[in-house]
Amino acid sequence: MELQLALDLVNIPEAKEVVKEVAPYIDIVEIGTPVVINEGLRAVKEIKDEFPSLKVLADLKIMDAGGYEVMKASEAGADIITVLGVSDDSTIKGAVDEARKQNKKIMVDMINVKDIASRAVEIDNLGVDYICVHSGYDHQADGKNSFEDLATIKRVVKQAKTAIAGGIKLQTLPEVISAQPDLVIVGGGITGAGDKQAVAAQMQQLIKQG
C-alpha cells in the first residue's frame, strides 16, 4: 500500500515547501487539477526536478485527446497521469498506448461514473494501471465517501491496482486501510494539518502496518 499526497490549492513555491516537509513519508506527489490549471505542466516538471526520488502524478483528468495529453505530461516528467472513467474507451486506450511508449502509468478516476462495477470491468480490460474511486469536493460537501465504491472495484477488478481519494483524514485512515486499496490519496488531511510532517509520518506508519 502506498501513500499519495494531493496538492490542489498551492502555487509552485508553496508546493515545494509542503513536499519538502513530508517527502520521506510519501510515495507519490500529485499535482492536482487546480495547480495544473493555474501553473501549467511546469508545476509537474519543477516538482519532479526537485524531488526525483518521488513519483509525480499529473491529475489532468483527461476527457479527450488521451494520447496527446499523456505525451505532454510525460515530457514534463509525470510518472502517472489521470484520465476520467466517463471518457470514451478510445480516449482511455489512446492514453494507455502512449503511456506504454513513454514507460508511464495511467490512473482512471471514477468520479461521476454511474455504474461503478460494470465500468470498472471495461476499464480494467483496457490495460490501465490504477482505478481510483473518488469523492470530489462537491461530493464531500454532501457527506459522501468512496468506501462502498472501493469494495465494488476490489471485487471486480482483476489487473489494475485500486486507489481511493476524497476527504481522507488521520482518524478515517484505519477504515480506509481495512478496505485494502493499493494506493491511498490524501490532500487536506495532510496539507491542512498544523504539523504536516507528523501527520504524514503517522499516516505512513499506519499504511505500512496495513
UniProtKB/TrEMBL annotation:
Annotated TM spans: none
Cross-referenced CDD domains: KGPDC_HPS
Domain Orotidine 5'-phosphate decarboxylase: residue ranges: 2-203
Keyword entries, A-Z: Carbohydrate metabolism, Lyase, One-carbon metabolism
Catalytic activity: D-ribulose 5-phosphate + formaldehyde = D-arabino-hex-3-ulose 6-phosphate
Superkingdom of origin: Bacteria
Involved pathway(s): One-carbon metabolism; formaldehyde assimilation via RuMP pathway; D-fructose 6-phosphate from D-ribulose 5-phosphate and formaldehyde: step 1/2
Regions annotated as coiled coil: none
Classification via Pfam families: OMPdecase
Broadest EC class assigned to this enzyme: lyase
Gene3D superfamilies per record: Aldolase class I (3.20.20.70)
SUPFAM superfamilies for the chain: Ribulose-phoshate binding barrel
EC number: 4.1.2.43
Family to which this protein belongs: Belongs to the HPS/KGPDC family. HPS subfamily.
Protein name: 3-hexulose-6-phosphate synthase
Organism: Paenibacillus glycanilyticus
Encoding gene per record: hxlA
